[in-house]
Design goal:
The structure holds two protein chains of two kinds. Chain A has five helices and nine strands. Chain A is an alpha+beta fold. Chain B is an alpha+beta fold. Chain B is built from eleven helices and 23 strands. Classes of the chains: A alpha+beta, B alpha+beta.
């Protein structure tokens, strides 16, 4: 009798524990903060990766909007701001003036700006670049293949996303969604110093 | 679903142990009040009645999911509902009725049902496992009271008679029980039971049921669903930002997606050209090239409705198609600012009269926008364009042009199928009506537009459900177990032999514990006849009875 009751209690406890675990998993209460990643100004969409926690950026090459070949290996030894954008994307249009201004500010400071034009056409993309005064090159990525490569190391959930790649080709910072001038300037200040 | 403590007590009060030991519904007096209540609540939750009520509630709760538009599957229809029912919609929204399957009350029912089933199935599994190993009960005193019985005299003495019967019954696969120890030395009896496969089937059913629950949960946590609209000649990679809709499971991150790419080479739709079925689709073929991973070999596939592509554990289904007219827009400064195929969506008026929007955010000096229709086989009916056939035999585009502010530069995402004309003014009164290849000047010197032709598009549903196969296997196993437990019946045969004269009197009794199909009567008769024949043989040489 008491053995049966003890077993019933054990089964009850096991099931209750299982359900509690399921609830935790389903509601995502176990949402920990992975180390080595710092949010900038409490904004979870802009992050800095600490040295030693920086993912290696994939190599890529492609055709620019103006038809020339571009390989990221040409930027070795430079800090690269890599912006995934599209002329169709509203937040990209919101952040475009900030990116154009940053590119002007950092000209000659060993920081290269580079775009990856996602799901776009050359006509629309060139019109966008003219409109916002963006003079740095962009690689056309109509099929999102370059984006997919980067998604294996950084969780790119949508467009726009901006990555800051350090001189050793490691990703040092990222802004998911529309980037602001100050967010990127903060990341660049850290990366160009180190 | 299942009753934990089904009344399985022996009909004749034999001391077959009730494995759980506890009488049902009885609260232990010694336990403190709250523990007692907890136990009571647990027993209620895991009872069949509550499980059935929860199952019914779950069915009831999914009704609004099919009656009302859902955020997950059709957010546009939800918006539509809000505009057409401005008073009711916010109330329904507060109750989570536009996203039923993510609503907390739905999760509550689901989790309670899950708990109820697990709490019911796990103890029952232990009990069934015990029952599948248990010995039959002792033979009752008076076998003639059993539903089936027979009695006859034999020349064998009582001990021999029981031995012979034991050999016959074990030859038929019965599990035997004989008097144990020295408690009843003069008692000659034998209990035999068969049909333990029924318990094994029952056990399999319960375990498989748990397996189904776990599989479904696995699929929800580790699977994903996505949609992508793909125009002829376009390629897309399976990555979050290339998908139009993306619904990942809780444990799916952007990096977990299968890294395939798919290109739509050609889409062909054939329609019935004559007869009463005119205009009905005859066949759809989407010719794809795909690579399973970047840089991998490119393979071809003829995607059809109900013939999905399987790549890297992901299934890709063809779920829709349409036309994407090609427009080229030149702005007032002479720059080509738009040159692409623009997907239009077929409306309800039939024959693929399709509606769509063209947004030209980088036209100068003002942004341009167009709304209009693409008519695959156009006929002018009293000034109104109608499509008379779904194939593009005589394609025409008719657009209304707007100039001004598209409202897209503020960073708020917009639907590509809707034009917000609040900040725009209409250019010209008449729509721009264009045949294929035709170019028209926009009013007020805003530039020009060319209707350069059309492409076709397909919409693809991409699903990854790792729980699908285990759920199928468990489902089949559950069905097999259920059939086994329905078809196999447990039946018992008892033998008692008492000395009488020079020989003994043998009593045979039989009982089927569950005999819905009613075959036990014949089985018992044949067994009794066989036993009687075995007992008629003169000698008790062990081999003689066994050899048959």
């Amino acid at each position: 009798m008491s053995r049966a009751r003890r077993r019933a209690a054990a089964v009850m406890a096991a099931v209750a524990a299982g359900v509690a675990l399921a609830v935790v998993l389903l509601t995502g209460a176990a949402n920990g903060n992975s180390s080595g990643v710092t949010d900038i100004g409490g904004n979870t969409s802009a992050v800095l990766y600490a040295a030693g926690h920086r993912p290696l950026a994939p190599e890529f090459s492609g055709t620019t909007l103006t038809g020339s070949r571009l390989s990221v290996s040409a930027y070795r030894g430079k800090v690269v701001v890599l912006n995934f954008w599209g002329s169709w994307c509203a937040p990209c249009r919101e952040e475009a003036p900030a990116l154009a201004a940053l590119a002007r500010t950092y000209r000659g400071a060993g920081v290269a700006f580079l775009g990856v034009d996602v799901r776009d056409t050359d006509a629309s993309a060139q019109a966008f670049a003219r409109d916002f005064g963006i003079t740095y090159p962009s690689v056309a990525d109509p099929a999102s293949v370059v984006t997919m490569d980067f998604t294996t190391v950084v969780p790119i959930a949508g467009t726009p996303t901006t990555l800051v790649i350090d001189r050793t080709r490691h990703i040092a910072g990222a802004v998911f969604g529309a980037a602001t001038y100050s967010e990127l300037a903060t990341i660049l200040a850290t990366v160009t110093r180190g | 679903m299942t009753n934990v403590r089904a009344p399985e007590a022996d009909p004749f009060g034999s001391p077959a142990p009730e494995p759980d030991g506890q009488p049902r519904g009885h609260l232990t007096g010694g336990a403190s009040g709250s523990a007692g209540w907890l136990k009571w609540a647990w027993r209620q939750l895991t009872s069949m009645r509550i499980a059935l009520i929860l199952l019914f509630l779950l069915a009831l709760a999914s009704v609004p999911g099919s009656m009302l538009p859902q955020e997950g599957s059709d957010p546009a229809a939800v918006q539509q509902y809000f505009t057409s029912h401005p008073a009711l919609a916010p109330v329904l929204n507060r109750l989570g009725l536009f996203n039923v399957f993510a609503a907390p009350w739905f999760a509550a029912i689901y989790l309670l049902l899950f708990t109820s089933l697990v709490g019911c199935v796990v103890p029952r599994t232990f009990r069934l496992a015990g029952s599948a190993r248990a010995l039959p009960p002792r033979a009752p005193r008076n076998l003639s009271r059993l539903p089936r019985s027979a009695s006859y005299a034999t020349a064998l003495d009582a001990g021999q008679a029981v031995e012979v019967a034991a050999r016959v019954l074990s030859g038929h696969g019965f599990r035997l029980r004989r008097p144990g120890g020295a408690s009843e030395p003069a008692d000659h009896w034998l209990s035999a039971e068969k049909g333990y496969l029924r318990e094994a089937g029952n056990l399999l059913f319960h375990l498989a049921l748990l397996g189904v629950l776990v599989s479904v949960a696995l699929g929800g946590l580790f699977g994903y669903k996505a949609d992508r609209l793909l125009v002829q000649g376009q390629t897309f990679a399976d990555t979050a930002s290339a998908l139009d809709e993306f619904h990942p499971g809780r444990f799916v991150t952007a990096a977990d997606l299968a890294p395939f790419t798919i290109r739509l080479n050609q889409f062909t739709a054939a329609y019935i050209a004559a007869g009463p079925q005119r205009g009905q689709p005859a066949s759809f073929h989407a010719e794809l090239s795909y690579t399973a991973r970047p840089g991998g070999p490119s393979r071809g596939y003829d995607l059809q409705v109900n013939r999905p592509l399987s790549v890297d554990g992901v299934k890709v289904y063809l779920i829709g198609h349409g036309y994407a007219p090609l427009f080229r827009v030149t702005d007032a400064r002479g720059q080509v600012v738009y040159d692409q195929a623009t997907p239009f969506i077929a409306g309800s008026s039939g024959n693929f009269l399709s509606e769509g929007v063209v947004k030209v955010p980088d036209a100068q000096p003002q942004q341009l926008g167009f709304t209009g229709v693409f008519v695959p086989t156009a006929v002018d009916v009293g000034g109104i364009l109608e499509s008379v056939f779904p194939a593009a035999d005589h394609p025409v585009a008719s657009l209304i042009a707007y100039a001004g502010n598209l409202g897209i530069d503020s960073g708020v995402p917009q639907s590509v199928y809707q034009l917000d004309t609040a900040g725009m003014h209409r250019l010209g009164a008449a729509p721009l009506l264009m045949r294929e290849g035709q170019t028209l000047r926009l009013p007020s010197g805003q530039g020009m537009i060319t209707f350069a032709g059309y492409d076709q598009w397909v919409s693809l549903a991409i699903t990854h459900d790792p729980g699908q196969l285990p759920a199928l296997v468990c489902g089949i196993a559950a069905l097999g177990g259920l059939l086994l437990s329905f078809m196999v019946r447990r039946r018992r045969v008892f033998i008692r032999a008492r000395a009488a004269g020079h020989g003994s009197t043998v009593q045979v009794g039989g009982l089927a514990r569950t005999d819905a199909s009613g075959g036990f009567e014949a089985e018992f008769a044949s067994l009794a006849a066989e036993l009687r024949a075995a007992h008629r043989r003169p000698a008790s040489r062990p081999d003689s009875a066994e050899g048959k």
